């Protein structure tokens, strides 16, 4: 849900006085409002010189929250929604699309796990390029490590359209680049701010405009790992809240969400996805990626997938393993994540 400040332009009762009153009680977003004791908040409002207007503001926010509630859906309506909206978005990488039965799923959170230089960023850039090019939708790319490369995307497009004329190539490049919105994010609180603003924008956007189709966070583990230290549970709570917010955005707005995560050392010297058990249950799908940078031959295996339960009887590294060649821009082999 949106920061309260985002409601100010549409509701005159939610003015600077009301926002300052809420902020003095630690309320900055609709979520903060929901978990606050509203009886105490109303009592504090009574003591203010603008008590009537503040109470009207509280009532207005409650009304907005009621309007935001999703309607109850029966099984048939959910099935129709899945058929109509929850399809796959091809990544443009044949091996991964074959493995996933078409691509990453709309309405779900897909996690790409791998060590450094395994090709995670390359997959994100290729997916962004393919979706922006072939599906006429907007891609929002949250870059946490300055790894977004428009040059690589231009290279992918050149490979795909190598027989086209220079003029057509330039038109395709302009269209694709304008459909990819990149935002640098360097801490988890800034990510929350961006996601809340994005949610508000998705709720209020006109149905006739170009729809957002894909949200990428590369890498989400860089934002979450710093808040997990120590014995406090606050970091884990922030991590879980981020995961649930991403899943809600995916489901309610028919987005495919793709995040990357690094690996850490596990028992017996084997590597495992970072962020621990609390995060493990959040992604709908988890892919493990490794890559030989010399040959560009990559291995991808499914660690978790809601539509492939039949593979869970095998070792996770052999549930469904596939080798493929990842397209790499010649000028950007070095440092690809």
From TrEMBL:
Annotated compartments: Nucleus
Keyword DNA damage set for record: yes
Main subcellular localisation: nucleus
Organism: Theobroma cacao (Cacao)
PANTHER family found in the cross-reference section: DNA REPAIR PROTEIN RAD51 HOMOLOG 4
One of the record's GO molecular function terms: ATP binding
Name listed for the protein in its UniProt record: DNA repair protein RAD51 homolog 4 isoform X2
Keyword vocabulary terms for this entry: ATP-binding, DNA damage, DNA recombination, DNA repair, DNA-binding, Nucleotide-binding, Nucleus
Keyword ATP-binding: yes
GO cellular component: nucleus
The family this protein is said to belong to: Belongs to the RecA family. RAD51 subfamily.
Function description: Involved in the homologous recombination repair (HRR) pathway of double-stranded DNA breaks arising during DNA replication or induced by DNA-damaging agents.
Any Pfam family matching the protein: Rad51
